[in-house]
Amino acid sequence: MRRLIILSLSLVYLVLTLGCSSDEEPYVPPLPTDPPEPPEEELQQPGTTYWWNDQVFYEVFVRSFMDDTGDGHGDLAGLIDKLDYLNDGDPDTDTDLGVTALWLMPVVESPSDHGYDATDYRTIQPQYGTNAQFQQLMSEAHARGIQVIVDYVMNHLSNEHEWFTAAAANDPDYEDWFLWRSSNPGWEQPWGGGNVWHRLSSGRYYYGVFWSGMPDLNYTNPAVEAEMLDIADFWLNTMGVDGFRLDAVKYLIEDGSILQDTPETLEFWGRFREHLNTTAPNALTVGEAWDDTDVVIPYVEAGLHTCFEFNLAQAIITAVNSGSSSSLVSKVDQIIKGYPYHQYATFLTNHDQRRVLSQVGNTSRNKLAAAIMLTLPGVPFLFYGEEVGMESGWDHHDVRRPMQWTSGANAGFTTGSPWNEVGSNYQTNNVETMQADEGSLWNTYRRLVQARVASDALRRGTYHKLGSNSSRLFAFLRHDQGAAVVPIHNVGSPSVEVVLSATASQLEPGEYTAHDLLTGAELTGLTVEDDGAFFDWRPVSSLAGLASVLVALEPVDP
Questions:
Q1: What mean pLDDT value characterizes the chain?
Q2: CA 104 to CA 256: how far, in whole Å?
Q3: First and final CA of the chain: distance in angstroms?
Q4: I want to staple 553 with a disulfide (CB 3.0 to 4.6 A). Which of 142, 234, 278, 484 is the partner?
Q5: Active site residue 160
Q6: pLDDT tens digits for range 103-158
Q7: What is the pLDDT of residues 193-205, one digit of tens each?
Q8: 126 CB-contact burial (10 Å; exposed 0-12 / middle 13-18 / buried 19+)
Q9: Is the confidence at residue 269, as pLDDT, over 50?
């Protein structure tokens, strides 16, 4: 059809040119024997995926998740008690959220409430429990089909760690495990913060890019690298974890006053990957490189399996707040072209950011943001409490309040006095209340998570953006070996007519039936042309504002 249109236009031009009046013979452009094709649409080709591409991860702050002992602090026993809430191992039940993997924020011994400053990398934080209880957690989680990764903070440790106290006392065995100066070079944090050199009472200065309580380790010392690799092996082989979330991967090795993203840092992560390939080849590494996409991609190319996509998270939130999908479409295009196939971690917010409901302002936008994130390629991560709409300001303590289980005392988190105040909306936004409401945010998350886990196309399928009749629509095709889902998201407030097209796709030509993946409702089918194209497809007549529909396609047997 498109070729006929081009040919017709060429003939019209020829007639008009011949019919014009002029003293000179009119110029007639030669009619091409083969009319030009429309520009070929670039299709993402299937690539290699791994076990983590099949997962939906859930980030847990153990201190704030569930208190089993009544001392006001969350603990491993409380987390074990709540595993059935996360995933009970039975795909036929609908009382669990359905996540299939956990990321535990730091669980090792530390003097702080957050744990990102270890004093003993091989011992569980006593308030959380024991090493034996952690191994029980691993056993219980694996029995339910839940994988577990833990935060591994390799860049720095606590200034109370025995390695640092020995070095500060001039112990020659640990002196070179840290970076020292006799005077302050005056360097500032790369993000424009404070000084990175900190003075001891002896007059010496030590380097700590985050603050004085977190001295950086010196990875130019082979003994440091060897010890930190050995600790990784301990967690993988003795404690049984399935991988690591790696904190602050940009800052490991400095090059003079260049404090981030140095070639030496990238080379280290390559060596780290090579080591794990030998000792634990199935272990996942997901890096926190909090930066723009073009800065993050080299860390995956260097050796980390995945990294968190902070720009994508912001693009999703911006789209649902602005009512336009344009910048989100552009960001996804950049990500698809830049990373190895689907090797990036998607999320909305984490423990360092204001919670998603507080950023988008209402439950409808939160539902839509979750639907976009959970239907895009990548490895999705949810932050605990996101599914019930916990709120926060920007303060870290505010972001990490206790999980909201019930409308009762202390939100059902503890029978004691909670270490941190519960959120102000816990009486309405809690698991117990929302589980009973089919239209709640919690049930929306449950349906989306379980749909993704059950769909080959959503977990591993290629991504192909679709043409639409409105900038408010964000529609794309996910395709995997015949399985196909078309998520359609309306990021605007008014309802919008839905008209979709593609000049090419990886769908086989023929007729397809369509149904809503979440509700099973029958939708308008699709006709795919011989070259994979389709035009003016209207799977639904219109889509409500801030709503989504996941269109599952099934070929009609000839």
A1: 93
A2: 34
A3: 23
A4: 484
A5: no
A6: 999 999 999 999 999 999 999 999 999 999 999 999 999 999 999 999 999 999 99
A7: 899 999 999 999 9
A8: exposed
A9: yes
355 by DSSP, 3-state: which? coil
42 confidence band (pLDDT: 50, 70, 90) = confident
Signed CA dihedral, 173, 217, 149, 108: sign only? positive
Q: What are the helix (H) ranges across 427-520?
A: 431-435, 441-454, 456-460
Q: Is the pLDDT of residue 40 over 80?
A: no
Active site residue 529: no
CA distance 409 to 427: 9
Q: Which backbone phi and psi does 456 adopt, to 5 degrees? A: -60, -40
Catalytic position from the list 247, 291, 456, 531: 247
pLDDT score recorded for residue 193: 81
* List 59, 109, 254, 288, catalytic entry: 288
Token pair of 225, please? 């690298």
**Rounded to an integer, what distance in angstroms lies between the CA atom of residue 284 and that of residue 273?**
10
548 within 8 A of 489, measured Cβ to Cβ: yes
Give the residue from 550, 475, 491 showing the smallest Cα distance to 519.
550
For the chain, domains (ranges, CATH) are 1-37 (no CATH), 51-155+217-454 (3.20.20.80), 162-207 (no CATH), 457-555 (2.60.40.1180)
Phi-psi region of 237 (alpha: psi -120 to 50; beta: other; left: phi over 0): alpha
- Other CB atoms closer than 10 Å to residue 524's CB: what's the count? 13
Rg over alpha carbons for the chain, rounded to the nearest Å, is 27
| pLDDT confidence tier of residue 41, bands split at 50, 70 and 90 | low
Q: How far apart are CA 134 and CA 152, in angstroms?
A: 15
CA 523, 529, 535: angle at the middle one, nearest 5? 55
> How far is residue 349's CA from residue 375's CA, in Å, rounded to a whole number?
16
Give residue 270's pLDDT band: very low, low, confident or very high (50, 70, 90).
very high
